[in-house]
Structure formats: C-alpha cells, structure tokens
Amino acid sequence: MKALTFFLVILLSAGASAHAKLIHEKVAYELDGITFRGHLIYDERAAMGTENLPCIFMVPNWMGPDTESTLAKAKKIAGSEFAVFVADMYGVTIRPTNGKEAGAAAGFVRSDRELMRARAGLSIETFKSLADEHPINPDKMLGIGFCFGGGTLLEYSRTGSKELSGIVSFHGDLKSPTLQDDANAVKIPLLVLHGADDPYVPQSDVQIFIDALLKSNVDDWQLVQFSGTVHSFTDPSAQSEGARYDERTAKRAFRMMSDFAVEVLE
Predict the structure, then answer these.
(1) Between the CA of residue 38 and those of 84, 123, 194, what are the distances in Å?
(2) What percentage of the chain exceeds 70 in pLDDT?
(3) What is the DSSP letter of 243?
(4) pLDDT digits (tens, 9 = 90+) for 37-92
(5) For residues 3-31, b (16+ Cβ closer than 10 Å) or e, as one string?
(6) Which helix (H) or strand (E) holds 142?
C-alpha cells in the first residue's frame, strides 16, 4: 500500500502491468431464486505471497458486469495491488445491449431501493466469502461505483452497514426516495466525484444530497465537483453531449480515489 498515490492513475492511462498475469473467475450466487454472476480478478502471484490482497468491490455502470469496458477497467484497477470483484445487480438473464435496455434494467432496480440494497449487500457478502479459497483480505474492502453503480453504493451506505472501509462514487446517481430519512444511518466514509455540468445529475440533486448530509451526523464525507465536466467522465467510450469522457478529470478522480484508498485501507 506504500506507493498507491498515483498507482491507479498510471494503470488507467497506460494499461495494466505487462508483468501481471491476472486470475479471472466468474462467481455465481443467488437471491430470491435469481442467479447472479460476478467477476473476481487478481494477480496470480498474490496466491504465492505472504499477505492477502486488499479488496475493491466494484459496481459497474448500467450496462452491467460483462461488458468489455467494465472488465478492462476492473483488470487495470486490480493490477498487482488489489483483488477486484465486479458485482452483478441484474441477474444472469439480464445483460443490456444498448442504452434503452440498460435504462430499463437500471430503472427496475432503482424503483425498489430495498431490492437494490439487498443485491448490493449479497454481492459484498459473496466477495467476502471468497477469502476462504483466495488470497484476499475481506477486512480491507473499498467500494467503487460508476454512474448507476455509484448510486447503488451510496444507497447501500444508508443501510448503516460497516462492511466496506469506504465508498467512492464516480458520476453516480445522488437521488434517493429515503435520502433525508436515512442519511443519519451512513457509517462508511464517502468520496463522491461529480461533473459540475452533469445534465443527468443536475446541481439541484447535488444540493439536496449535500443538504441531507449537512443535517445528518455523518462525519466523514467529501463531494468534489469538476469544472467543465459532464456525466460518465471516466468512460472512454462516452462521447455524447451530456455523457463524455474527460481525460483530465478522470486522472484527477482516480488520483483522489487512490489517496482515499491509502487512507481507509491502511
């Protein structure tokens, strides 16, 4: 954990380490008769080491866990430093192929916040259970989420759980029907990274989110806004007017994530 300050930025701009050979396993789990399938990724050399890897629990954007871009991002983040688990919030029968399908899938989960919390919680429990057979440290686990995934983790934080050491939301949803009522329940340190010009999560949502936390007793939260930045700023494939990759902001955001990881995982 000593040299993590710029580690993730380097990975995401230059690609994964040429020396790392990553283990990638698909992990099935069930809730209410629905089968889910996530992805466990880590450097195979960790299996021969004396220390278990700290963990990154990753909830992807609304396109789900199996996309090429999501898995590439997970592998780069894992590198030789972390074990990454990519959660499945939909179930194996739902794998969106376009924005319309993704909107419907994400909308279904968003419409039932107890369901969202339960699926996120089960995915975290599944990741932790893998420590019996894999070189991971379940007591050091950072949650990160992108867009829909960021909103999912912020929703999960309102359960009062302490299962994660910290949460980082990248351009995530900030709305919740129980935000005002449940803000006091948050026990996990939060780092919320947001594009100041995001048309999908506008400043009105940002202010409501801030107001709820200011009125709460939550003592460890940060919200950072990036100028000239819209939605999906960490996604190189995003090139629309309202959702567009921003290299400068992405590097700054991942640097902040890296610093946050050093703090909460040590």
Answers:
(1) 10, 8, 26
(2) 92
(3) B
(4) 999 999 988 767 768 999 999 999 999 999 999 999 999 999 989 999 999 999 99
(5) ebeebbbbbbeeebbeebebbeeebebee
(6) strand 136-146
Cα–Cα distance, 75 to 9 (Å, whole number): 13
CB 259 within 8 A of CB 2: no
**What pLDDT is stored for residue 20 in this prediction?**
65
Q: How far is CA 120 from the centre of its chain?
A: 11
Q: In what order do the strands lie in the sheet with 83-86?
A: 22-31, 34-43, 83-86, 53-59, 136-146, 166-170, 190-195, 221-226
Per CATH, is 7-265 categorized as 3.40.50.150? no
Stretch 141-157: mean pLDDT:
98
CB 251 within 8 A of CB 186: no
Structure tokens, 31:
């809730």
pLDDT at position 19 is 57
Question: Domain map of the chain by residue range?
Answer: 7-265
Is the pLDDT confidence value at 15 over 80? no
Other C-beta atoms lying within 10 Å of the C-beta of residue 234: 22
> Mapping DSSP to helix (H, G, I), strand (E, B) and coil, where does residue 55 land?
strand
CB-count burial class (<10 Å; 0-12, 13-18, 19+) for 34: middle
For residues 209 and 179, is the Cβ–Cβ distance under 8 A?
Answer: yes
DSSP three-state, residue 164:
coil
Characterise 8 by phi-psi region: left (phi > 0), alpha (psi -120 to 50), beta (else): alpha
- Which helix (H) or strand (E) segment holds residue 251: the answer is helix 247-265
Tokens (6 digits) for 85: 């688990």
